[in-house]
Amino acid sequence: MVPMSNEYRQELARSLTLRENILITLSTVTPASSVFIIIPSLIVGLAGGSVAAMVIAAFLAIFVGLCYAELSSRWPISGGEYTWAARLLGKPMGFGVLTLSLMAGILIISVIGSGVGTYLSVVWDGFDSPWTTIIVIVITTVVACFTIKTNAWVTGIFLGLEVLAVLVLVVLGFSDIQRGLDTFVTPQTLGASGGLEPVTWGVLFSLVSVALFAYGGYGTAVFYSEETKNASKTMARAVMVSLLVTVLVELLPVMAVILGADSLESLMASDTPMNDFLVQRGGETVNMLVSIGIAIAVFNAVIAIQIQNARLVFASARDRSWPVGVDRLLGSINPRTKSPIAATVLVGVL
Q1: Are residues 241 and 81 in contact, defined by beta-carbon separation less than 8 angstroms?
Q2: What is the CATH number of domain 18-349?
Q3: What is the C-alpha radius of gyration for the chain, rounded to an integer number of angstroms?
Q4: Are 248 and 170 in contact (CB under 8 A)?
Q5: What is the pLDDT of residues 247-275, one digit of tens each?
Q6: Would you state the pLDDT for residue 278?
Q7: Which of 53, 171, 312, 338 is deepest in the core (most CB within 10 A)?
């Protein structure tokens, strides 16, 4: 392996505005998926206290976001955490971070890709099939090979549909409030008898990590540093605005559902509390439409995460982290799309 440079010849297209960077970043976060898939585990463990856990997690995330903002302003280079670790701690440590990041990224794509069929099964049971996952990966790989600006708007349109799905929860919940705001600071769980029992704040703090995981992804703005205009001055805002929007889009629907649910006990006992709430308040048709919206959100996230991981692979190849022939292939940029197509295809195949 050879020493890395802090400056590279501009090969990627520096065409993203701040807004377009944020659109791709929020698509990686996929807040609607977090609300429907991750946050229910908080509700089961804490009832209304899940809101307090999310607020605490948001406070902690600010400090993480500030670290990302500072590092991305200092090194506005594609590759994210790998590039920072390699420059601050040495290339061997950077390669370790690279390996872990690649493994995590590929696993995430595989796991969430299977969620599209699950949510589309409300339309037709046949969608819940491994073939749906394969088709999703193939299509998203092709889309991820487009120009970064095209991908910003493709993911942005899907993100808009995703936010609409979340807004349905907000409207249905806040339109018929069943309990007071003190519920948010009263952590409870289901007891053996099926009734609500208080839990300590120690239990609440132990579940803050789940809320942090639900917010995860706002830092991926840094992967598009070399494709963002005026990156050294823009990246900090991209990270922090992405965090702010993520918190609002995830926290508001949870607050609405907690306040609007007819029975917290029934909500906590459900395997799919958000969907059950939709059926209860809006009916089966509303639940079906929102479920399609969540499938779109997952599809959108797969596109965004593939784009992110392709930049990671490209950055590692450019730093000559692999055998010479592999570096040359994975570090190449398509002259027409100005995107790392070989790296993108590799991520899709894996």
Answers
A1: no
A2: 1.20.1740.10
A3: 21
A4: no
A5: 999 999 999 999 999 999 999 998 889 99
A6: 94
A7: 53
